[in-house]
Structures are given as structure tokens and as C-alpha cells.
Give the backbone structure.
Amino acid sequence: MKSKGKLEIQKNQYSRLATLIDCIYALVLVIIVTQLPLPSEEQWAGGTLIEFITSQGNDLFPVIIALVLLTTYWIQNNSLFGNLVRTDNIHTSLSLLQIFFVFSYLYAVSLATEENFEGQSGVMALQSITAALIGLAGSMSWFYAQQNRRLLSNELSQPEIREMQISLLGEPITALITLPCAFLGGIAWELSWFSYPLVVRLLQRLIKAKT
């Protein structure tokens, strides 16, 4: 049994950690938005916005994927933390590891928008790897938290715990699918991200089979 004082410390630590993660995700998303290329005045006035989007595809796509992916991870993180009542040093370390991978992914996306690096296989592979690591770190922190219900709310049932564990795999699995496609070219890599709905659908079937 944990002492009352230690439980209070863990609850305070949990609150601070959740606030820190929210702030970091918000900051990273703002930085990602600033990576979007801007059309010139002539392109706006001349009605050539479609041409602009087509010509800037190499810059636009990584940023759009990053916005969607990081927003999904943020929502997912809020959902997970909503089912916790406290944290401890190991869970905090795993959560901070996930944040390290978020910054690594931000670096990879920034590289992808640089003229000297855009379209390079290595840069696309780096985006896939870091995107997958964000999800895997989140999955590890949830796996640790739910072991013996050490950090969980009593309101969460065992099937719900298992469902959340499986649902966390959608994003990292998709990112790993895109990894080999990075070496097949930009178009193949970009198209491979659209496997995400299929991956989610398969995981939903797995969840139903487990319940």
C-alpha cells in the first residue's frame, strides 16, 4: 500500500505532467503551421492557387500529415490521461520519451520543407520512424499504467483497457508501413499514409474479436 503522502505527490506530478504535455503539443503544432509554404500575392490575385498547391506538394504534404498525426496523438494522449489518476517516475519518463520523439518528428518535418532535403528518401524515412516512435512510446506508457491497474481510474473496465491498448497501434503501424515506401519515391510514400483508415478498420475488428 502506498502512503497517503506519496499518493498526493503522484497526483500532483500527474497534473503537472498533463499540463506540460498539452503545452508542448500546442507549441509544436504552432511551429508546424509556420512550416506551410505561402502563395505570393500574384498567385492569390491570379487565381492560380491550385497550381501553387500542385507545385508545392513536396512541402505541403509532410506538413499536412504532421498536423493530422500530431493532432491525433494529442487527442489520444488526452484520452489516456483522462483515465489515469496519478503518475510515477517510470510513467513520467515514458511520457517524456514520447515528447522527445515529438520534437524529433518536428525536426524531420522541418528538414522535409528545406529545399536541399525535400523529396529525399532518408528524410521521408526519418519522418516515418519518428512518427512511429511517438506512438510506440505512448503505447508503452499505457501498457505500464494499466499493469495491475497501478495508475488507472477504478471506473475503467478490463475490456476498455484492452481496447485502448489495441487502438493505440493504428498510428505507429501506419508509420511503419510508410517506411519502406520512402525508398520507392515521394509519391509512393505519400500514398502509403492513406493506409491509415484500413489499419484502423483492422484494429477495430481485432478489438471486436477480443471482446
